[in-house]
Specification:
The protein is of the alpha/beta class. The protein is 36% helix and 21% strand. The strands form four sheets. Strands 1, 2, 3, 4, 5, 6, 7, 8, 9, 10, 13 and 14 form a twelve-stranded mixed β-sheet that branches. Strands 17-16-15-18-19-20 form a six-stranded parallel β-sheet, with helices on both faces. The chain is globular, with a radius of gyration of 28 Å.
Length: 613
């Protein structure tokens, strides 16, 4: 293990260098070079695999915030902080910083097996050049894992890449799917063994990569003055699917092969659609936008990143929300919303008449169906709203959208907010993960009753919300009661929130303690938001009040199962302080079998108070 050294500043490169310990540079033979940004989940696997047979690992990091740098340093890597300049330029700078006579270029999610490691060392022993002067380079064979399954066909295997060459012999070229360009003749050897490529953990990772690469490709093609006729795009999409699924044997990879073929075709469509949009003389620029989310309260909160994204993209536009009447109070607390509209029962009862008339009266030129409510979809189509963005995976949506999204959400591994943001891609808005740590709700001005209630509590409470309306697996009521008693005995003020009906159900599990207060049915939504804003922490299963608390900025502990579609990968709260406790086991009634100690420890980690007595 190499010793961790302090950061120093390199005056020539104007980058932050964290070097290896002092060593004879001439003794370095092999440098592994990795470019990273938030690769904490992958990098340790690679670092462990190369330990003991490489002379240095150079990690060229572009702003990681997930602990990647510390992990690399602890493993003895030399870390260089750098600005991202595209794949080719960044990789070339990283290679130039290496001290070895040979470069082994690997991605953070790649791992050479033992046979590959031996073949790499054997190759280097034969020298940098052949007898006739050609550079001796090594080509590895990658085997890619897709959502937990190894892909042996679909055009993904064999996947041969030149990754080993003498230092200084080559430069990366190209904006995307970059290639190595050598300064002389090359003799390429296919090395034994495999480099395991842990590529996409969830289907959402693949979708995100499609957008990332498609954007770079389209911008590069636009700069070159290229475009593609629409008819040719259709042929390219069909050809890509046929090639991947049939010609490259994707059908032999089963369901995984089908998914890869479908998304490969989708990737072809998306990159050409981006290119055509860049060439469009009439960019989409709506002035009055309606975001429709007429289902549950938590779903509405997870839609609010769409509002933020629309405001950033169109700063002069009005962004409105359409919600059910019960959710109006929360919608009015949403940041960046021009006006809130309630979808009333009479609108739904006559979507083609009353509903369409109502929508038409509001004069929107775009509507985003974050939830494709059948009646709202029909009303907006009848009202002839110019841009209608929504899913194509509902029968009632077909023929009623102007722009479709074809993502499946149930088990994709993508967050609900992220999938919602993907609806905005026709407007030139790319989905990213920046929304996770943001506050999207403002604290409403409290009425006197809410102020009095807070005063009655005598301090910032821990709020426990034991109800979930059956939207997801819940934690057992008796464990909520046991948690309350444990926290109260440590000195916390604990209050239970929920409806009056939930209070009647929970009454048998309510502990008797002077610092435990039931507040079931004692406040409306606005009052709940105010109380949550003053809380130490809110604990709940996946339910609306958990999401409202997180979106205000209050610390929360969310309780989740690990199986789709209720899992935290999709329904995790968004906010600056979110802890999730998960379980893969369930009780007979479907309740979450999370130990009391796990939840108690999560609360203590947030509050920092173990015992006040």
């Amino acid at each position: 293990m190499l010793t961790k050294l302090p950061t120093i500043q390199d005056p020539l490169e104007q980058t932050t260098i964290r070097p290896n310990p002092v060593t004879d540079e001439r003794s370095l033979e092999l440098s592994v070079v990795v470019i990273t940004r938030n690769e904490a989940a992958n990098l340790p696997r690679l670092l462990a695999a190369v330990e003991g047979w490489v002379d240095e690992v150079v990690v060229f990091d572009s702003g990681s915030t997930d602990g990647t740098v510390d992990l690399a340093l602890d493993a003895g890597a030399r870390v260089i902080d750098c600005e991202w300049e595209g794949w080719s330029n960044t990789k070339n700078k990283a290679n130039a910083a290496a001290k070895g006579n040979w470069i082994l270029s690997l991605d953070a999610d790649e791992v050479p097996d033992a046979a590959s490691a031996q073949a790499i060392q054997d190759h280097m022993r034969q020298g940098a050049r052949t007898p006739d002067g050609a550079w001796r380079v090594g080509e590895v064979n990658r085997l890619t894992q897709y959502c937990g399954r190894w892909v042996r066909h679909s055009g993904w295997h064999p996947d041969r890449k030149i990754r080993l060459w003498p230092a200084g012999a080559a430069q990366w070229k190209g904006a995307i799917h970059e290639d190595l360009k050598f300064d002389g003749p090359v003799a390429c050897t296919r090395l034994e063994g495999l480099v395991h490529h842990y590529s996409y953990h969830q289907r959402a990772d693949h979708l995100a990569q499609i957008e990332k690469f498609g954007k770079v490709w389209a911008e590069d093609q636009k700069a070159r003055g290229r475009t593609t006729p629409l008819a040719l795009v259709g042929l390219k999409v069909a050809a890509q699917w046929v090639k991947t699924y049939f010609l490259k044997g994707g059908f032999r990879d089963g369901r995984t092969g089908w998914t890869i073929a479908r998304l490969s075709a989708w990737a072809t469509w998306r990159k050409h659609a981006r290119l055509r949009a860049l060439h469009s003389a009439v960019p989409l620029n709506p002035k009055r936008i309606l975001v429709s989310r007429t289902d549950a309260l938590g779903d509405l909160v997870l839609t609010l990143p769409l509002v933020s994204a629309l405001n950033r993209k169109f700063p002069g536009a009005e962004v409105h929300l359409l919600v059910r009447p019960y959710a109006v109070a929360v919608a009015k607390a949403a940041m960046g919303v021009t006006e809130v509209h309630a979808w009333l029962p009479e609108h739904a009862a006559d979507a083609n008449g009353t509903g369409a008339t109502y929508i038409r009266s509001l004069s929107f030129d775009a509507v985003v169906f974050a939830y494709p409510d059948r009646d709202v979809v029909k009303a907006c189509r009848k009202a002839r709203v110019g841009l209608r963005l929504g899913t194509g995976r509902r029968w009632h949506a077909l023929g009623r959208m102007t722009h479709y999204n074809w993502d499946g959400r149930k088990d994709s591994g993508g967050h609900e907010s992220w999938h919602g943001l993907r609806l905005l891609s026709p407007l030139g808005i790319d989905a990213d993960g920046a929304f996770h740590d943001e506050c999207h709700l403002a604290v409403p001005i409290p009425d006197q009753a809410s102020v009095d209630l807070l005063e009655k509590l005598g301090g910032s409470p821990v709020l426990l919300h034991p109800g979930s309306h059956g939207s997801a697996g819940n934690w057992p009521a008796e464990r909520f009661g046991a948690l309350a008693l444990q926290l109260a005995e440590k000195g916390h003020v604990v209050a239970f929130t929920g409806t009056g009906e939930e209070g009647l159900t929970f009454d048998a599990f309510l502990p008797e303690h002077p610092r435990i207060l039931p507040l079931f049915g004692q406040m409306d939504l606005a009052g709940l938001l105010f109380l949550q804003s003053k809380a130490e922490v809110v604990v709940a299963s996946s339910t609306g009040p958990l999401h409202t608390a997180a979106a205000i900025g209050t610390p929360v502990v969310g309780l989740y199962g690990t199986r789709p579609p209720e899992w935290a990968l999709r329904w995790r709260p968004i906010g600056p302080t979110v802890e999730v406790v998960e379980t893969g086991t369930f009780l007979q009634d479907g309740s979450l079998d999370i130990p009391l100690t796990d939840v108690s420890e999560a609360v203590t980690a947030i509050t920092g108070r173990v015992d006040r007595e």
